[in-house]
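call fold target=Cytidylate kinase
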Amino acid sequence: PRLKVIAIDGPSASGKGTVAARVANVLNRDYLDSGALYRLTALYARQQHINWQDESGVAVLAKNLPVIFHNECILLDSKDVTAEIRAEDIGMGASAVAALPAVRDALLQRQRNFLTSKGLVADGRDMATVVFPQAELKIFLTASATVRAQRRALQFGIANNGIEYQQILTDIEKRDQTDRTRLVAPLKPACDAKILDTSLLTIEESVEKVLDWYRKI
Ligand code: C5P
């Protein structure tokens, strides 16, 4: 049986988070930002002085994340970490802990628990391949690395040239490489996923395309 889930996977800074949140809003569904769980795990490990490579140590933390999702805010141990988890080094930490099988395992059920009768739009790297293989609609949302770096730069108010931009581009390519080549749940389109390249699309056009596919199922 198909699940009432729209799974949206793709590389970092592809715009999948924004698109997924808007689609959820239009369809009045819940929204799961699965990357936030990996980011929270990386941040929590740092706070608890657990090394990002310590698989069993980090897995225990992942299992017991004291997190509350409240409207647009994310509270970890009752502290608002909404902005903190978006930092680039936490993104790298998320990518590191996400390569550990025990950590992925620890977060699996928590992710599935986000699905209620309301239905869900979930974004991440393995929503369609591992977490919700029965999703009613699977989308792999991409954009070229340069376009993604430009979007990230815009987000941080950085110009599209110069050393800071170069660093963003390098970081994006490095994180993608880690996510694509890891052994467990690598970033790749599900065989039944629709590919959406947003390099030349606005957010509104991307949202419309997803809704279009949804109306056709
Ligand atoms: O999407 P976001 O950039 O917030 O994700 C941070 C990192 O978490 C990714 O680079 C990836 O390594 C990991 N991740 C994952 N599986 C997911 C979501 C995120 O491995 N479903």
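return ok
The radius of gyration is 17 Å. The domain at 1-29+118-217 is CATH 3.40.50.300 (Rossmann fold).
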